[in-house]
Design brief:
alpha+beta, four-stranded antiparallel β-sheet, 1 helix, elongated
C-alpha cells in the first residue's frame, strides 16, 4: 500500500506543469538582395506572453504576443 501511495505522489509531482522564463539573444549578419548588415534580436518569454525586439541599424521593431488575450 505504501508503494502505491508513494508511486501516485511521485507521478502527480512529475506531471505538474513546469513554467520557466526564457530570454533568447540572436545576432545575424550577412548580405542579401535588398538587405545587408547586422541584425540583433532579443526574445523574452514569460508565461503566455512573448516580446521580440529586433534592431537593424538604428531602427528597433518590437512585437508583443499575448496568448491569453489572443492579441499581437
Amino acid at each position: 500500500m505504501k508503494r502505491i501511495l508513494a508511486g501516485t505522489v511521485l507521478a502527480l509531482t512529475l506531471a505538474a506543469p513546469v513554467h520557466a522564463d526564457v530570454t533568447l539573444h540572436q545576432t545575424t549578419a550577412g548580405k542579401g538582395m535588398a538587405v545587408s548588415g547586422d541584425a540583433k534580436a532579443v526574445t523574452k518569454i514569460k508565461g503566455n506572453k512573448m516580446r521580440t525586439d529586433t534592431t537593424i541599424g538604428d531602427t528597433t521593431h518590437s512585437m508583443i504576443f499575448d496568448v491569453d488575450a489572443q492579441k499581437l
